[in-house]
Amino acid sequence: MKKHNGMRPQDIAILLKIISLEKNKELHENWRNIDLANLLKISSSEISNSLNRSKIAKLIDSSKRQVAKNSLKEFLVYGLKYVFPVELGAIAKGIPTAHSASPINNSIVSNGEKFVWAYFKGTTKGQIIEPLYKSLPKVVENDLLFYELMAITDTLRIGKNREIEIAIKELDKRFFD
């Protein structure tokens, strides 16, 4: 059995991408590791290693095709901010994330504070949050559900109580509806 050396940040993104693919029945039934690698701009070997880590952590089934959504939700809500904490960066232009992005920003009134993933195509000015992996800002452009899941995840990492409550409700809608 392969040794488990702990989760890596991209493991979360890979699991959330698989959930995003579930909504697209055509892709969900037929995806391969190489498809995930191409969609996420991560190497095939890293996809394979990530799925193995997630299987050992019981966040995906033994076939490595079905995410254990209840377990993943529990980890995201109660563990993510401790395992992958946010260190705020400088002010820059980028893509909105956390409660500065949909769907969270639809439910709260902002005090003007914005959080972004730094990205040269971004148009929103805000404080930088380092994405869970480097190419994330580029790959969310073509998948709204995946983008929302990643923004919800960042809200769980950095949000205050009210924002976290909203994020949990939005996560439930996307996981279980």
User: What is the CA–CA distance across the termini?
Assistant: 35 Å
Which descriptor suits the 3D outline?
A: globular
Mean pLDDT: 93
Secondary structure: number of strands = 3
Summing up helix and strand content along with how strands pair, one would put the structural category as: mainly alpha
Radius of gyration: 16 Å
Q: Percent range for helical residues?
A: 40-55%
Strand content: 5-15%
Number of domains: 2
Poorly predicted ranges: none
The helix count comes to: 9
Main traits of this protein?
single chain; 177 residues; 2 domains; 3 strands; globular
Task: Report a brief summary of the structure.
The chain is mainly alpha-helical and 177 residues long. It has helices spanning 9-22, 25-30, 33-40, 44-56, 69-78, 80-83, 136-139, 144-158, 161-176, and strands at 88-96, 115-118, 124-129. The model has no long low-confidence stretch (mean pLDDT 93).
